Amino acid sequence: MQISKALTAAKILNPTAYKNSRGLTTRRFDSDPYHWNANTVVHILERKEYTGCTVNFKTYTNSIWDKKQRDNPEENWAIFENAHPEIIKPDMFKKVQEIRKQRHRRTRTGKSSMFSGLVYCEDCGAKMRYCTTKDFEKRQDHFVCGNYKSNTGSCSIHFIRAVVLEQLVLNNLQVVISYVTAHENYFRQVMTEKMSLKSAEIVKSAKRKLAQNEKRLAELDHLFIKIYEDNVAAKLSDERFAMMSEQYEDEQATLKSDIISLQAEIAEQERQTENLELFIKKAKKYDGLNELTPYALRELVKAIYVEKPDKSSGKRKQKIRIQYDLVGFIPINELLQAEKQRETA
Ligand SMILES: [Zn+2]
Q1: What spacing in Å lies between the alpha carbon of 128 and ligand 1's midpoint?
Q2: d(Cα 324, Cα 198) in Å, to the nearest integer?
């Protein structure tokens, strides 16, 4: 919706008006050539073909008698990569889908933060909520743990001001970027080792979960046949049958979507060498970064974990941990320490 508002305000021709301006016929006629619908933007953002592939079987029809076009689930699509020149880089497309999956809570004031959906509480793992009001000055905007509700919540107060967060994230990124740029080979060596250990663990547990899901899915198929037969044989009432099959279908849908994300997770882990190279390339691209932009943030950062403030020194000190995109956590302190030792040696 925000993008469509920006396009409307910038007086960019909408797709229908653009087609008209090129002398192409269109089915619809929009009265305002600059008016953009939020749905149009969604359609553009989700259109995989822009990455250069051809997608077949996005819809299907039941039979030659029922010609209604139905949406085919994505796992049934046939995708042919590099079918035509790309206009969107595939990794940018992937990033956009990721951002769209994170539900953005738009505040009532209409203000939003580039960190929305990226910030988590280190203690309880909950997402942190962006809080702002119209009268807030920028320095008062803050994030608070989703499990913290004054005195009744399950998490003790976790709170960080948005400006503090921005400064901490920028500092972290700057240190990592300059390290990667200066010591690319050593960074590659350490991260390869770290990632292959971590990745073996993740792949093992994802494969175990995947096998369980597939087994349960097969069980459900049998159960479904069983209740169907019982229903036909009048051993199971129609209401009961309807209720049970609905339950099975729900469980089936959940299992199927979990299977898809597990497969993606495994594939992602198996691509880790490629991911590491991609991260190094991105980090080097941002060498000299002195201001955090939403795009740089999304390109480099997957999640930010906020720790409980440390007041032992009398001053409020807060630490964050950044999970970087493509590579996860970077043991930057150890890397810097090792660097110092190498220098003195
Ligand atoms: Zn919490």
Answers
A1: 8
A2: 14
Of 19, 79, 30, give the one whose Cα is nearest residue 51: 79
In angstroms, what is the span from residue 275 Cα to ligand 1's centroid? 30
Distance (Å, rounded) from C-alpha 293 to C-alpha 190?
28
Q: What is the pTM of this model?
A: 0.65
Q: What is the pLDDT of residues 156-178, one digit of tens each?
A: 667 899 999 999 999 999 999 99
CA–CA dist 98, 303 (Å, integer): 12
Sheet (strand 119-121) strand order: 119-121, 301-306, 320-324, 328-329
Q: What is the torsional sign of CA 98, 103, 108, 113?
A: negative
The model's pLDDT over 283-297, given as tens digits with 9 standing for 90+, comes to 999 999 999 998 899
Cα–Cα distances (Å) from 16 to 27, 43, 51, in that order, read 9, 14, 22
Residues linked to residue 310 through DSSP beta bridges, in sequence order = 317
In angstroms, the CA 6 to CA 181 distance is 36
Ligand 1 midpoint to CA 268 (Å): 28
142 alpha carbon, distance to own chain's centre: 22
Where are the domains positioned within the chain? 2-95, 119-185+279-344
